[in-house]
Amino acid sequence: MRQNDFENTPMLKLVMSLAIPSMIAQLVNILYSIVDRMFVGQIEEVGNVCLAAVGICGPIVTLLSSFGTLVGIGGSIWLSMCLGQKNEKRASQILYNSFVMMVVLSICLTFGFILLKHNLIYWFGGSDALYPYANTYLTIYTLGTFFALMSIGLNYFITGQGYATIAMLSVCIGAFTNIIFDFILIRTLKIGVAGAAIGTVIAQFLSCMFVLCFLRFKSKIKLHKEELSIEKMKHIVKLGFSPFLIIASDSIILIVMNMMLQKYGENMGDIYISAITVAQSYFLLITGPLLGISSGTQPIFAYHFGSQNLKKIKEAFKIVISFAFLFCLVMFIISMCYSNVFVAMFTNDAMTMPIANRAIKIFCLGILMMSIQYVLVDGITGLSNVKLSLFLSLNRKLMYLGCTCLLPAFLGVSNIFYAQPVADIYASIVTIICFIKIIPSYLKSHGVK
Predict the structure, then answer these.
(1) Does a structural domain hold residue 227?
(2) Is the pTM of this model over 0.85?
(3) Does residue 356 surpass a pLDDT of 80?
(4) Which domain holds residue 131?
(5) 43-73 pLDDT, tens per residue?
(6) 240 within a domain of the structure (yes/no)
(7) What is the domain count for the chain?
């Protein structure tokens, strides 16, 4: 229940107290998808097909839940700024307006995705063999959209007030519930991919209830009825659009990658999709905690931007970048040495395993540079420079998308995996240059000194 003191806590201690719980929360949150895929991949006789089907649904599901990030990050950044300005009344209004936005979005998205799911599966790399399993998983998951958006979106408002451990706990409740129900529904009751989806929805329901109860009764800024404001909603979307675009475009790129694998993989399309599903699951073990570091410490930048404290902002950037780089260095070494151990947890298929193992090693070639890019882009968003963070996000995604489409066409389908490190290294260099050239004058123009 302890709330972090943004004003007086030493910066190293403050960064660690926010980054580590957020890292753990993201890591545990990844268990939603990874555990589903591990159990599904081990289903007798049809495990590899089911794994590919869940892989097709993965980016669609992420795209769906990214709308919670749109409102959650946008609203929580603004809330942290208001706390830095000692304006609790406005912070309360932001929380309520964000809640209403997520309710409306969840209703619209549920109906929209249910109506489009048949086309989405085939548009985004599905085949006749994969369709029955993908359709079952996506239908059940979509019906739980409300719980997914609330548990993801509102959790940012807990972190934004400094309750990083409580935010971590809400994710842990859902993730461990998901593991238990996966074991019961898939292993014991033999329900298959339907069991994976049902377990996820139940887990998200419990996380949602926990978050709502905490914000309603325990947090400093409580969730209660306030005046609705279209202008506030627009500003929330403006602040949240860049991180939303990062997550949503990641999903779109993965969808395009599945399409390219089916197109150029010939009769091995489903095998390549199974392999890249495993590789992407591993890569989440890097990008998830890294996102936890960058987004978990975002309230620090927002708070001190609101209080116009340049010294604290500089100190925070140095510490957060160092921590992110160290984490990625450790993960790079592990990836190069032990990726085969991870692959074996998902599948024992002789054709899938070597492709997945190679994909993991290639994916990780650019992660040291990526650590810097993540922190700078999220930090820039925390400083309310939405235009720059949006440009930097789009820059990376367009490079990734271009490489995903061109590499298999000119260098063969097996080289599509190089799209990841090429985009990571290129975007990191551009981000560092823009940060050095633009941010000092930007802060000065906003009175931060």
Answers:
(1) yes
(2) no
(3) yes
(4) 11-445
(5) 766 667 777 777 777 777 777 778 888 898 8
(6) yes
(7) 1
